[in-house]
Amino acid sequence: MSIEEYGGGQGPQSDVLVVTTNDMPGYRVEKVIGEVFGLTVRSRHLGSQIGAGLKSMIGGELKGLTKTLVQTRNQAMERLIEQARARGANAVLAFRFDVTEAADVGTEVCAYGTAVVVVQQ
């Protein structure tokens, strides 16, 4: 079974599998490369902040902020995959996201995990 057949990666063309688990059934970790991360900081534009402020008064999903956060997470993950690939990995184990406010100007999203080379058992 190849990485792609395992259901891995972040799309049909991805050659790097990213999983939240510490191992992959049917695969053996041949080499641990080390920590990799993808980082991005996004500021919110004035329109979305005003809209979010109004929406928060009446309740409901803040769709503009949700969309921005999804885009930001995807960008951080793409950067993590690029870094893993550049270091020779074909998988990232123990994948996580960390989200924090960055100096009251935006949201920092860090995607991180352990880059490894896995082989089929």
UniProtKB/TrEMBL annotation:
InterPro entries found in the cross-reference section: UPF0145_dom_sf, UPF0145_YbjQ-like
Domain of life: Bacteria
One Pfam family it belongs to: YbjQ_1
Family per similarity comment: Belongs to the UPF0145 family.
Name recorded for this polypeptide: UPF0145 protein BIV24_18905
Source species of the chain: Streptomyces colonosanans
